[in-house]
Amino acid sequence: MPLPLLGAAVQLHHMDMLRDWLFDQNRPLEIQDFVSPQVIAGDTSEQIGAWQKMLAGHKGPRGIHGPFFGLDLSNPDAAIRAIVQQRLIKGIEIAAALEADVMVVHSPFNFWHVLNYTNYDTLRGALMQACADCLSPVLARAQTEGVTLALENIDDTSTKDRADLADLLDHPQFRLSVDTGHADLAHANYGAPPVVDFLTDAGNRLAHVHLQDVDGHADRHWHPGDGRINWRPVMRQLAACAPAPRMILEVRHNLHCLPQTAAMLEGLVD
Predict the structure, then answer these.
(1) pLDDT at 2
(2) Cβ neighbours of 221 (radius 10 Å)
(3) CA–CA distance from 51 to each of 34, 54, 64 (Å)?
(4) pTM for the whole thing?
(5) Angle between helix 258-266 and 231-240 (nearest 10)
(6) In the chain, which stretches have pLDDT less than 50?
(7) Which neighbouring-strand residues pair with 63?
(8) Integer-rounded Cα radius of gyration of the chain
């Protein structure tokens, strides 16, 4: 199957250099100005207004990265989960105001959990239930606004935890995201499955992908091709996905080179 057009994760100050490339072919974009506590907890009307003005004429898919700093979906304290819910619902409201239909949220699962599922036999069930309780009002609001939550692997070493949570929730507005760099870090440092297996095991739950490269040591967010990931099998696996996920280049530096990087990746699929 042919790849869909690759898009980019952007902040407002990136748009002067990327606007023509994103708008000319209506590539997908992911807005990342609303992730920090200082922004999401305050008055976001000015930022929303600036983005609404910038987006005039864009007809491609768009999403936002939801808030994530300190926001653990699996926190066992219901009072703390209530704050997490408030922040995520605020993110959904922002997404709706920007006519975005996807909001990326962070997975709570990590390697310690995997090592201790047998040691603490109630741990996995408690994590799953806490996530379900936390996300219940969030998903209700997401459904009202037509926004899908895409749960991104962060410290995940198991490909099953997020998939099993998606199956437990069984909600039309809850899907999975795979970050290629995060997956490769888990593979390099913890013996997790390789990137292609994260993609494969997500199955038809996969709605969104962050494309970024790493060196196996830190979360570099380098351009694909600048790190250690073998991109040809990754892109072929993505081309085989049905339905096709939204694919977003999420790099930190030299964003002016994104058109060349996208062309390189698109050229890897026969």
Answers:
(1) 79
(2) 18
(3) 11, 5, 11
(4) 0.98
(5) 70
(6) none
(7) 30, 102
(8) 18
Tokens 């603490």, residue located:
120
Separation of alpha carbons 148 and 157, rounded Å: 24
> HEC string of the chain?
CCCCCCEEEECHHHHHHHHHHHHHCCCCEEECCCCCHHHHCCCCHHHHHHHHHHCCCCCCCEEEECCCCCCCCCCCCHHHHHHHHHHHHHHHHHHHHCCCCEEEEECCCCHHHHHHCCCCCCHHHHHHHHHHHHHHHHHHHHHHHCCEEEEECCCCCCCHHHHHHHHHHCCCCEEEEEEHHHHHHHHHHHCCCCHHHHHHHHHHHEEEEEECECCCCCCCCECCCCCCCCHHHHHHHHHHCCCCCEEEECCCCCHHHHHHHHHHHHCCCC
SS (H, E, C) 96-136: HHCCCCEEEEECCCCHHHHHHCCCCCCHHHHHHHHHHHHHH
Question: What is the C-alpha to C-alpha distance for residues 200 and 240, in angstroms, rounded to an integer?
Answer: 10
Where do the domains of the chain lie? 7-266
The CATH superfamily of 7-266 is Divalent-metal-dependent TIM barrel enzymes (3.20.20.150)
Alpha-carbon distance 166 to 174, whole Å?
Answer: 7
Do 105 and 147 meet the contact criterion of CB atoms below 8 Å apart?
A: no
